[in-house]
Predict the 3D structure of the following.
Amino acid sequence: MTEEYVLRCVLMLCCALLTANASNWLYLAKLSSVGSIRDEETCERLRGLIQRQVQICKRSVEVMDAVRRGAQLAIDECQFQFRSRRWNCSTLETMPVFGKIVTQGTREAAFVYAISAASVAFAVTRACSSGELEKCGCDHNVHGVSPEGFQWSGCSDNIAYGVAFSQSFVDVRERSKGQSPSRALMNLHNNEAGRKAILSHMRVECKCHGVSGSCEVKTCWKAMPPFRKVGNVIKEKFDGATEVEQREVGTTKVLMPRNSQFKPHTDEDLVYLEPSPDFCDYDPRTPGMLGTVGRQCNRTSKAIDGCELMCCGRGFQTQEVEVVDRCSCKFHWCCYVKCKQCRKMVEMHTCR
Ligand SMILES: *[C@@H]1O[C@H](CO)[C@@H](O)[C@H](O)[C@H]1NC(C)=O
Ligand SMILES: *[C@@H]1O[C@H](CO)[C@@H](O)[C@H](O)[C@H]1NC(C)=O
């Protein structure tokens, strides 16, 4: 072994440790080469899981496809919610999928943790309701006649199962050694806040039974909100996130607002430890830091999607581009709609 080789190994090991990241399991969304996760052997081959997650995988193999769908859901929702921000949640083909953006204790990391914890709870609960799992089904604690006089019936979403699974699978990294105590507190808080975004927006859906739609008998069940709603709630919490620091109260460590004039955060709020970078410039040393060159912006908006802020004062270019739209749609009896294709020129602005 040459010295250079040893040195390189040490460097690689350090890199591996530095990037050992609690959100690496999101990489499951990228493992399209792995088919359905059916057996314990597959659990060993899943990159991105830490040892204790591999154990959970082996114990609950049947749930893992739902976890993988959860990872994809989290990434898609993050990209939707951040579509007109400087950091737009773009993923890398390597781990961690969001690069170094989420390895610091920023607001963006807070969002990613919350949406990921929520997405696993959501996807697993969905799988329970759809009858695809042996370990769980509908929530049978919801039954009988409600105070409002309707009959609980149908499949109530078993959110308790999904939340418990998310707590064991997603939170496990924070409870293991090697994690900084303040980051662990931050991540755990935000994971829980993400799951609360589902729990506090559960709704009651009903169906009427009776002659020609009369509501003689009404049956209802508990349902999760659509995931878009969960994303909207967490995005609002991101906008109002609280900067915190770790303090000791007696012998326990807690997170308190850095600015003592602020009222303390609730269980549903997001918290972060460090201010975010400005995300303006591409930085080859920070994977995931793509900068905003080439990003589309809105010339008239004063918000973050406006050219002023999006382009960080570098200015923008304007192009005329042709867009094809459906137009002059006519309804034909019976029953289809026929449209023409219209071409029009619109201005598109992109950051220099
Ligand atoms: C995010 O922005 C980058 C440019 O910074 C662009 O290449 C990428 O397509 C965008 N991703 C999404 C998901 O919008
Ligand atoms: C640009 O921003 C303005 C003002 O916020 C808004 O009314 C308009 O719909 C935006 N345009 C596009 C194409 O998003």
Summary: Confidence is low (pLDDT under 50) at residues 5-19.
